[in-house]
Amino acid sequence: MAEIVLGIGSSHTPLVTFDGEQWGAYAANRDLQNQRLNTSDGRWLSYDQLSAEVGDKYAADATLEKFLAKDAICQASLDRIAADIAAAKPDVVVIVTDDEGELFHATNRPAIAIYHGDEVVTHPREIAEGSPGYVHTMVKRYAMDQVHRFPAMGDFAYELIERMVARHIDVGTAASVEDPEKAGFGHGVGFVITRLFGDRKIPVIPILLNTYFPPNAPPAARCHDIGRVLRAAIEESPRDLRVAVIASGGLSHFTVDEALDRRVLAGLCDNQPDKLRTIPMEALNSGSSEIRNWIALGGVIEGMTNRWIEYQPLYRTPAGTGIGVGFGVWS
């Protein structure tokens, strides 16, 4: 029987792909001119509007000294996840993440899709002329600097699709990448493979939730149901497989909401699914929508024990823009 040996949560923010010394430049280029920052009550504000509302509340957190210290914590957490994966020796890693227009576009955007091809192929990301050096570093870490090919496990994925559909989860599917220059896998999958697998070639099964794009982004309770059914589908398999399931993405961004992040982690670590299932839709917009991946993980790891957790609110401007990052392992 297939066995889930690890449940993992890991943020994949650009901030963990390049040095903390560059976080300030990233914030200046991305945040200060942003006209559409999401808040957890469903509002959308420009940076100037947010600043007028919040003031310089987080100025003491948005310093180079803090950036360097928090970068070190994040990298140590990622190293710890990588070590846990190496020790567990999974035969396959199921990656629950989101697609941001890398594989799916407006012509077809399923609420949930499982890839059942035998090879994951990444989509190169175009870099504008004159882009800062950290952009090149980020794109390489996301395996989007060129076309990369990684092993998948299509036959097992096919079985999972069949079992999940039988349990009333309507799964969209994809089985190939025809032209990676036009569409392929992106950062949510590429970061896991390049940063957490080391030199090991572990087959993956990408599960893509539509977190970013209305109107068919699933609500929190549905994401949790998806995780529960995914676990059942894995454990019903007669295959002798050691399986790891990882949620890639999140937590709150592009304004940091520590209360929301801590609610998510408490729901996961304290086996309190209602804290996950009742998160309102207005809290799951833009980057914060990736919390859905963690909620789905919550359905997978119900009853499992949290081995360790790390949470850091990465404020990168005085007004509190940035991301709440989480890293943790369950078994």
Q: Mind telling me the CATH superfamily name? A: LigB-like
User: Percentage of helical residues?
Assistant: 25-40%
Strand content: 15-25%
- How are strands sequenced across the largest beta sheet? 8-5-9-4-10-1-12-11
The coarse silhouette is globular
The protein's oligomeric status is single chain
What fold name goes in the CATH topology slot?
Protocatechuate 4,5-dioxygenase, Chain B
Compute the number of strand runs.
12
- Which structural class best describes the helix and strand composition? alpha/beta
> Regions with pLDDT < 50 over 5+ consecutive residues?
none
* H/E element sequence: EHEEHHEEEHEHEHEHEHHHEE
Cα-atom radius of gyration = 19 Å
The largest sheet is: 8 strands, mixed
Give the number of helices. 10
CATH class: Alpha Beta
Distance linking N and C termini: 17 Å
User: Mean of the pLDDT scores?
Assistant: 97
Write the layout of secondary structure elements.
Layout: E1 3-10, H1 23-30, E2 37-38, E3 44-45, H2 47-54, H3 64-88, E4 92-98, E5 112-115, E6 119-121, H4 133-141, E7 149-151, H5 154-166, E8 172-174, H6 187-196, E9 204-209, H7 220-235, E10 242-248, H8 258-269, H9 273-277, H10 291-300, E11 306-315, E12 322-330
Parallel strand pairs: 1-10, 4-9, 4-10, 5-8
Antiparallel strand pairs: 1-12, 2-3, 5-9, 6-7, 11-12
Helix pairs in contact: 5-7, 7-10
